[in-house]
Structures are given as C-alpha cells and as structure tokens.
Amino acid sequence: MMQKINRLCSVLGLSVSLALIPVSAYADATPLIRAMSAENSGEMPSLAPLLEKVVPAVVNISVNGKKSLRNDIMEIPEQFRFFFPEMPRERSFKALGSGVIIDAAKGTVITNYHVVDGADEIKVTLHDGRVIKAKKIGEDQQTDIAVLELEKKDNLTAIPFSNSDKLRVGDFVIAIGNPFGLGQTVTSGIVSALGRSGLNIENYENFIQTDAAINSGNSGGALLNLRGELVGINTAILGKAGGNIGIGFAIPANMVKSTTDQLIKHGKVKRGMLGILGTEVTEDLARNFDYKNVNGAFVNEVMKGSAAEKAGIKSGDILTSIDGSPISSFGQLRAKIATLGAGTKIRLGIFRDGKNSEVEVVLDSSSESGGTVSRSASPLFEGATLGTNSDDDKGGVVVKSVAADSPAENLGLKKGDIIVEVNKKEVKSVDDLEGALKEKDSFIALRIIRGSAVIYITRSF
C-alpha cells in the first residue's frame, strides 16, 4: 500500500515521504487514496472518479456589457472646455470567467464580482455544453462576490460548502476553472498559506494561498478539497501578464457562504461592525505586552457605544480567535467581521494582562457605528471608511481610509478629506451624508476640506 501512496505522490509532483508521517497527519487524504487506488480495479491511479462528481458543478461564464468611463471634463474651468471635446461616457466590453453551482434546485451560481461587473448579458456554459442565460440577484464589490440565478434549472449538479476554518497549510486542493477561455481545466496542488491580507486586491482580504495553477479566466472557479467540497472561490493570481507562477488566491468558503446568504436574502450585505481601530501584532508589540507570538489583532481604540465596548473589549487587548478559530492578523479579523451579518453573535478570544479569556459579542450594523457607508446610499462611496468628524465644532464626515482602485478612489476621495456639503446641503455626520446621497439626482457636488484648502468634487450620471 505504501508503494501506491508513494506512487500517488509522484503523480502529483509532491516530494513528501508519507512513511515518515503519522497516519493521523494524512487521514484527510483517505478519500483521495481510495479514489486513486488501483488495488481492486486494476486501473491506473487517478483523480477522475472524484472529478466526475464535481466537474459538472463548475461552469464557464461569458458576459457582455458597458462600463462608464471616467470623465474629468467637469473639473476643467468653463473657459477652457471648448478645447476639450466631450469624451465617450461608456465603452462596450466582453469578459470570460468561471462560476460554481451551489444550489441545483434553485439554479444558484456564485462567481466573482469583477467577472460580471457592468454585465448587461450573462451566459453560463455547463460542462455538458448547454448554454443558459443568467441574471444577477446580488453582488458585493468589497468581497468580490456575485450571485447569479440560471433561467433553466434542469439536471444541474451542485457542490457543497466545507468549513474553511478547518483548512490547514499542506492540505491537498483542486482548482477548476476556465483559464484563458480555453474551457474547463483542472489543476491540483496544496494550500500554501492561510489568512493572506494586505494585498490590495479587495477591500476585505482573508485569502487562501495555493500553488494549484490558477490563470486569467479562473476567477470565480472552485477550489475544492479531496472530498469534493468547496473550500474557496478562486479570485486572483500573482504573476506577470496574468500567468501562473505558483501563487494563487481564493476567498475562503465560510466568507463566501456568509456573503452569499446575505445577498440572496437581502440583495446586499448587511455588514457586521465590531467598532475598534487596530493594527497587526509585531514582534516589538508582542514583547512589550508579554505575548508569546505575532498572531492576532491588536486593539488601539474602542469606539464609544460600539459592540466591542458593550462586550468589555479594551484598548491594549489582543484578539486571538473568533468562535474558536485562531486569528492570524488584523486584516483577517476585519474581513471575517465584515462578512458576518449585523446582529450575529460571536465569541472573541482575548489576551489581556498575560491571561487568555473569551467574551461574547453581538455585532452592530455598519451604520450604527459610523463605519462604511452602505451600498444603498451610493455605490460611489464603496471602498471608503467614513466617520463623523469630532476634531472641531464644524462637524462633517472624515474619510478614514480609501481602498485602492475602489469607486471611492475613482471618485477622487482621499484619506483625511472632510466632507462638509453635498449639493449645497450641509453635512455634519455620517447619517447626514447617507440621507443626502439617497436623494435621487443626476449630479453630485461634494464640498471638501483637504488640508488647508477647500475643493469640490463633481460628477454627473
């Protein structure tokens, strides 16, 4: 049997000696070993038996649509606009990607937001060659997740979710997608790292890193474990010109499921809010607080009246786990909290004064804590973290952060900006801003204090 296992490792290109590893360490590989075993059948070792069950649930997606172009003519002084003819406001585009069927009865498909962003027409090609039209039923740019519904729901296959919090570095994984538009392609590898963040790919990042080959067009495809369960949605690669160099990233299944459930139920994500400002745990910080490692999230400040304050969390705490699952970084904590719905009850592990403890927290909604402006207020502010300005008596809304390549950055917002007027209406708080943005208008003019200057940002629709 060990010879067959070693032959299996050779087939997968792995230099692992399972003979030196306790049985419990590779017990999760048992389904693969059974699937590939030639002991009774006399066949060559193969992943085919497993793939035959799951491949029909991974689909190819093609989209047609139009996207708005940035048009900065509004910022050119009136007397000079004659020299700058009006530029086209839209351009047509086509795109290819991948998706995963998660509910066969309802025809529910999940994919990446960036695959179907701006799509007027979405066509899904199944493994058996059928082409079915689909419509969007929800999308969330900050997690890069979109949910589709197929027009026809006959003879579909779905993939079940796994608990991605139980995933470990070194676990075998399989990636299925539509690289470079070639058609459905399968690759295999292992989990290279967990909890990757700070890559500026998305606003909320908690990526699974894998060496399974992922290329352009794999976006929205499935990352599976050896039980044929969904552990992640492939979303990004690190490489030149969209090519694979052995570093690919997937959104964890738990994060996908939480986001998807909210999109199906509400049509948008009602983000949970803990109400803290924090940072990563560094070696120096850990040493000063007598903390034995650098995993976790350090709490710099607890917002007044927030869920964190109500639960007894204090500045100087190190948050170590969510519902028993370790926290590797502040970025991972932020992503997990943001994809849990408002009102969700969680257990947070805390390190304080040399002791570990747990507290129960009921998450606020983002609007209650003055966090990210909701999508319903205005998509223009997606990617901006906002708060009521408390530095002086003038009020206004301060821009605390702006995600790279987000609608907020494209609008022209910068960290530190203070928004004081929207369309000549005074804004003193986040609630005022949300109220002003909900008013339907074909034009928006923001009066902003930026440093010592007062500027306007204008856009027409």
CATH topology descriptor of the largest domain: Thrombin, subunit H
* Strand coverage percent: 35-45%
The percent of residues in helical segments reads 10-25%
Shape-level CATH architecture of the largest domain: Beta Barrel
Number of H/I helices? 10
Termini gap: 67 Å
Unreliable segments (pLDDT under 50, ≥5 consecutive)?
1-29, 70-74, 367-377
CATH class of the largest domain: Mainly Beta
Helix-strand category: alpha+beta
Please give a quick description of this structure.
The chain is of the alpha+beta class and 461 residues long. Helix content is 17%, strand content 35%. It folds into 4 domains: 2-46, no CATH class; 58-266, Thrombin, subunit H, CATH 2.40.10.120; 272-365, Pdz3 Domain (Roll), CATH 2.30.42; 379-460, Pdz3 Domain (Roll).
Keywords:
35% strand, Thrombin, subunit H, six-stranded antiparallel beta barrel, Pdz3 Domain, 461 residues, globular, six-stranded antiparallel barrel, alpha+beta, disordered N terminus
Task: Give me the secondary-structure topology.
Elements: H1 2-12, H2 30-36, H3 48-54, E1 58-68, E2 90-103, E3 108-111, H4 113-116, E4 119-125, E5 131-140, E6 145-150, E7 172-177, E8 185-196, E9 207-210, E10 222-224, E11 230-237, E12 248-252, H5 253-266, E13 272-273, E14 276-280, H6 283-288, E15 297-302, H7 307-311, E16 318-322, E17 325-326, H8 330-339, E18 345-352, E19 355-362, E20 364-365, E21 384-388, E22 397-402, H9 407-411, E23 418-422, E24 425-426, H10 430-438, E25 443-450, E26 453-460
